[in-house]
Write a structure and sequence with these properties.
This protein is of the alpha/beta class and about 475 residues long. It has helices spanning about 5-35, 40-50, 50-65, 80-105, 110-140, 155-165, 200-205, 220-235, 275-290, 295-310, 355-365, 370-375, 390-400, 415-420, 430-445, 450-465; strands spanning about 145-150, 170-180, 190-195, 210-215, 235-240, 255, 260-265, 315-320, 325-335, 380-385, 410-415. Strand 1, helix 6 and strand 2 (about 170-180) form a beta-alpha-beta unit. It is flat. Its EC number is 2.7.8.31. InterPro entries: Bact_transf, EPS_sugar_tfrase, Undecaprenyl-P_gluc_Ptfrase. It is a multi-pass membrane protein. Its main location: membrane.
Length: about 475
């Protein structure tokens, strides 16, 4: 949720954040220039000139326009705030390098490398510090939004609990509920200020920032129209909280069909052709670089180890369910003895079919690396729901109602489910259901930064050792 930015928040939080960001870039720029000795006197003179700081300023303005920082607006902030700050810094540096190289026709690599790494790290530390300051301010009772609840159904009660979670760090002050029913559902510690019609008198005498309404518009349309008008006239942000009981609890997307408002059960960012192109470009570039650099060395190592420990092919090929339910040949380094059960039975922790070298490959996830070939071919993506055996697709699609939704995007080498513990053998239907829920969450919340986070979490998981990797 993104509330309106008040003049005070703009002055005290957002503007200082942008100024501090820019000052860090300038400081690191001149420090990097000072410590980079390989620049010629002519190049140094050019970089110290008045034009270069202006180019850096223009690059920063372009970056914050493309990737706005909302430390104060996103009150329930998460890792995305800091990844966005890092991406913004990287975008600034990239634009700066592109423009300066084009204008001055110089590319001092050492300077840009020092500037890029230092600026990125300092920007992250800066935003961590700013976030801590904002949370401290909110815990002390300032920078808080005054909120009213009109109604008291399950959704509004849950919303109130979410706002008050975290000892006030989200910055919401729930003033109370106006309701004619469900009074017994109002949480302990929250006040019932009157019936729904009493809210108008309250608004005349009290300052309110946001109003959340759970009243049914089909039965109280006139009341809601009046409430919206009252909120608009007093500059109060109005939020409608519909009763979605019976529908899945997930992020939904509304649209208009003529004059009719319709709601989709899920928003799929990868339905956007530009986002598809971005993700495919990332897959081609990263998988291509890996296949021509690291993969040949890994292949030689695995080929020697596999040949010495078990007769048979180096690669294992298996039909798995991919994008839109279509089958494809998934590649892995063979980690088991050649057997007839590989298409039906999952690997277990003490599976007798595994070789000793194969067990090592599985525990280090090296066995998955040939799937970069699948990524380059377009059968898979680097990040996405893990592809399952066709046998399991047939079985679980009958047991889990939303199972096939996970095939709305390309399967991945790693995924949101895997980095959240849903990896390896699925012994029960509930375990598979949990995995599917994580996969659907990924589909609905996809972004390039989320993919970056999953990749980092995967690397950390592999380096730290994963008990489920067998």
């Amino acid at each position: 949720m993104t509330p309106r930015t008040s003049p005070k928040e703009l002055l005290y939080f957002k503007l200082p954040t942008y100024v501090a960001d820019l000052l860090v870039h300038y400081a690191v720029f001149y420090a990097s220039l000072h410590f980079t000795s390989h620049l010629t006197p002519v190049q140094s003179g050019v970089m110290y000139g008045t034009g270069t700081p202006l180019i850096l300023f223009i690059s920063y303005v372009c970056a914050i326009t493309c990737v706005p920082i909302r430390l104060n607006e996103r009150r329930i902030a998460n890792y995305m705030v800091f990844l966005r700050a890092l991406f913004q810094s990287a975008l600034t540096i990239s634009l700066f390098i592109f423009i300066t190289s084009a204008v001055y026709k110089i590319t001092p690599v050492r300077f840009y490398l020092l500037y890029g790494v230092s600026a990125g790290l300092l920007i992250i530390l800066l935003h961590l510090l700013i976030r801590r300051i904002i949370l401290w301010i909110r815990k002390s009772g300032r920078n808080r939004l005054r909120v009213l609840m009109v109604g008291a159904d399950e959704n509004l009660v849950s919303l109130s609990r979410e706002m008050k979670a975290g000892y006030g760090v989200h910055g919401y002050n729930v003033l109370g509920f106006f309701t004619d029913k469900y009074i017994d559902q109002v949480p302990a510690g929250d006040s019932v200020l009157g019936g729904i019609n009493d809210v108008f008198d309250y608004l005349k005498n009290h300052q309110v920032d946001e109003l959340y309404c759970g009243v049914n518009p089909s039965s109280d349309g006139e009341f809601i129209s009046r409430l919206i008008h009252e909120a608009d006239s007093r500059f109060i942000q109005f939020w409608f909280v519909p009763n979605m009981n019976g529908y899945p609890h997930r992020k939904m997307h509304y649209d208009e069909f003529g004059d009719v408002t319709i709601i989709s059960l899920r928003e799929e960012p990868l339905n956007n052709p530009l986002m598809q192109l971005l993700k495919r470009t990332e897959d081609i570039v990263i998988s291509g670089l890996f296949l021509v650099t690291v993969y040949p060395l890994v292949w030689i190592f695995v080929a020697i180890g596999t040949s010495l420990t078990s007769p048979g092919p180096i690669l294992f090929r298996q039909n798995r369910t991919g994008y839109n339910g279509k089958s494809f040949r998934c590649l892995k380094f063979r980690s088991m003895k050649v057997n007839t059960d590989s298409d039906k039975i999952q690997a277990t922790e003490d599976d007798p079919r595994k070789t000793k070298f194969g067990d090592f490959l599985r525990r280090t996830s090296i066995d998955e690396l040939p799937q970069f070939i699948n990524v380059f071919k377009g059968d898979m993506s680097i990040v996405g729901p893990r592809p399952h055996m066709e046998f399991h697709t047939d079985m679980y699609s009958k047991l889990i109602s939303e199972y096939m939704v996970r095939h709305l995007v390309k399967p991945g080498i790693t995924g949101w489910a895997q980095v959240n513990g849903c990896r390896g053998e699925t012994k029960t239907v509930e375990q598979m259901k949990d995995r599917v829920e994580h996969d659907i969450w990924y589909i609905e919340h996809w972004s390039p930064l989320l993919d970056v986070k999953i990749v980092f979490m995967t690397v950390r998981q592999i380096l730290g050792g994963d008990d489920q990797a067998y």
